[in-house]
Each structure stands twice: as structure tokens, then as C-alpha cells.
Amino acid sequence: MLIRYGTDDAGRLVKKAVVYTKNEHLISNNDIDPDALQIITRLNDFGFTAYIVGGAVRDLIVGNKPKDFDIVTEATPSRIKKIFRNSRIIGRRFKLVHVVFGSKIFEVSTFRSNADGSVGNDFGSIEEDVLRRDFTMNALYYDPNQNQIIDYVGGFRDIKKRILRPVISIDRIFEEDPVRMLRAIKYSATTHAKMSHVLRHKIRASASLLSQVSPSRLTEELLKILNSPFAMEIVSEAIDTDLYIYLQPSATSMIYDNREFEKKYLESMKLLGDLNKSNPDERLGKKLVYFIRDFAQTLTNWPEEVLQKTSYTELYSKTWTECRNFVLPMNPMRRELEFAVRQILFDFGVRTQKNQKKKSIIQNASKASSSKATTGLGRL
Length: 380
Prior knowledge:
By secondary structure, the chain is an alpha+beta fold. The protein has helices at 22-25, 34-45, 55-62, 77-83, 126-130, 155-161, 173-176, 179-191, 197-206, 215-226, 231-240, 244-247, 249-257, 259-278, 284-297, 302-308, 312-326, 334-347, 353-379; strands spanning 2-7, 13-20, 50-53, 71-73, 87-90, 96-101, 104-110, 140-143, 148-151, 163-164, 194-195. The termini are far apart.
């Protein structure tokens, strides 16, 4: 373990950060996307410090596979854009750079100042940038070329002790950005980190702040749950902290009214998590099935609908409308929700005329094959 020193306002030498070496953090660069490594190396070649930051570092430490590798640097967006021709500047107030490698997008940001709090939009130093990050376990900087983790806030120790601790004052962390409450339960679920009673109480007391968040941001957070191997654990935490009613109000209402529905719903979330572990790249429509199947089951007596051969078009239209309203405020791509509804109807035994005809052909072919086999045996 090394120490990074700096000076205070009086010019005195003070300890700024702890630096963990490879034999302490055990991160292997083989687990990091080579294009992310290339971005950092190229920034270094142009004289700029650069680090992998945030969730990717946390996941690498606990042994989870990172989905994204965010990078932070002292280089400004315009300078980054000049270094990488395969990049574009995004953002209105605080500009970021997306560096594109085929279908992969890497977000490269500049150190931000905390002069205006954790939501300011001015450039700053790494010492300021770290104080803007939400929780200590999400505030670690990894230098892959030096194989070092830079820790200003005790995040590495908190990960090892499985403690979820805010960097920003608890009096303003959620008021400045309510989505941080969702990140808190996600971090707790995915790293098995414990929240203090004070933090959990603050989340419950602040839950209503999520009503101010735009549907697009809530959709983004819900899609993260849909794609998480820990879907059940995250949803369970969201229910316990009174957040889920702002993410999925219809589902939460049914959960509060019916313990049996809650049991089935959480079991579906567990199956969703299992799917994400075994096949993380499965299409969104198949994952949405787990979000809406238990609700769709309650819409009608499906065996009776099948026996009565109710119009497929009518059943599909009504089911799609009900499921669309059920998942609000989440707004998934229409074709994926349509796929999920069709899959559910198929699972419930509802067939289109085309499917019924195909099933009949298969059954007749099977009978004919069986008949020929019997006749052949008789001759023998």
C-alpha cells in the first residue's frame, strides 16, 4: 500500500489518498475491455492522466463482470475529440465524449469541480471529482498501466467490509439527485453491502423525490434491472425501501394487496436474473416476459379463452394495452413489448390461426408416421 500526498491551504504536506498495488487489489487487465485500455494508453501518450472509474472498478474488485468501462481524465472534451477521430462530444451543460469502437461506446469525462456541489458543471481536479461521486465504493480510480487503485475516500476498504457509505452529505445526496437512491439499492444488492439504519431510513423518507424524475431516466434505471443478474435482489430492496412504487406503481399495488402475487413476482425476477447470468445478450422482449407474465395471468381465465377460441387479434390487442399500462412509467421499445405479449399468449395456449394450422399439420404428420410404423410392424 502506498500513500499519495498533497499540500493543504497552508502549504503543509498532507495525506490525500491511499494507493493499492496489484498484489493488494488483484485486478487483472485481462478482465478489462482492450479498447478501454487503448483509450487510456493513448491519453497517457498525449500527456494526460486517465483512469477507469466508478462501477467498473467496483465490479472488478468484487468479481463481477463490468458492463461498461467509464473513463475519466484531465483532458478537456475538445482535446479528447482531437485525439480520437472515432469520437463525438455529447451533453449540453457538462460535455462528455463518446469514443466509439464498432458497436461499443466508451464514455470519457473530464474531472469535474465540486465548487457548486455534486451537480456542478465546471471542470476540476481529481481531488474535487471524487467528492462529487455518490458512494465510496463507486469513487475509486484505476490506472491499468500502473496497476494501481487510487482511493481518496476509503472505498476499497468499504467494499472489502461490504459497507455502503455515502461520499456526499446524507442531508443533500438524494435531494441533489433522487436517482442516487436507486443506485444505493443496486450497489447493496450486487455487492451484498449493508446499508446503515440511517441511510436506509433516509431513502425511505426521501422516496417521494423519485416522482420528480423524468420517465426517460426511470426507464433507463428499469432497463438496468431488466438486464441485471441480480434483478430479484434489486427489486426486493426497492420494495423494502418504498422505491418500487415509483418505478412500477401497478406492480407494487398488486404486491401490497396480494402476498401470493408478491411471491410469484419475485420468483419471476429470480428467473430473470438467472437468464441474465446464462444469456446476458438475450433480446429485451424475452426479458420483459418476466416483468409482465404474472400480471397478464390475472387478466382473464386463459384456459376458457383457449377453449372458446376467442379471436387472437382481440386477445392480443387487449393484453398489449393492459401490459403497456402496467409497466408505466417504463417505456420499452414497442417491438420488444409486442414480442413479450405474443410470447405470453403462446405460453398461455393462445395461438394465431397460422400457428394453429401449423400445429394441426405437425399432429397429422405425427399420426401418419405412427400409422405407418404400426403397419410395418404388423407385416414383420
